Amino acid sequence: MNLQKIILIFFLGCFLTQVNAQTFSAAGGSIPDAGPPVCFPITVSGLSPSNLTSAHGLTTICLTITHTYDADLVAKLQAPDGTIIPLFTNVGGGNDNFTGTCLDTTATTLIGSGSAPFTGDFVPEGNIGNMNNNQNGNGQWILIMQDVGAVDTGSVITWSLTFGANAPHETNF
User: Fold this and answer.
1) pTM above 0.85, yes or no
2) Does position 152 have pLDDT exceeding 80, yes or no?
3) Contacts of 58 (CB under 8 A, 6+ apart)
């Protein structure tokens, strides 16, 4: 009887964790060669709870980007309240692509210590927790991309934001 209760509680806990996580995805587009920053929006709506905190907030940013020289790229994320965090700057050297790359503070490898093609989980340059500043997470989120070097080109194929429990803490200096 106790084993059945434990199994039921386990599956209920897994289900509730999955229900609390919400992912929003968008397509991207071209990143101009040695050009100005370009913005790729995701509209987040129906986020519950709507105020982002460490109890429930932004946890992960995932990207798939094709580019022929990753070190040319600079990526930032802008929240609906205008908060901006750096995701990565000039990483990966002359190698190519970010394939199923997820930026998450619980990862074990810093994005700057990784190598292209970037696949898997990495800690971003900026603190995702700074987005969990009690702002309303519903609204337009913007991935800001810039190619800062000439000759090589690329595109954001897809990107997503995941919101869930046990989100990173905001850092105040």
Assistant:
1) yes
2) yes
3) 52, 79, 128, 131, 132, 137, 161, 162, 163, 167, 168
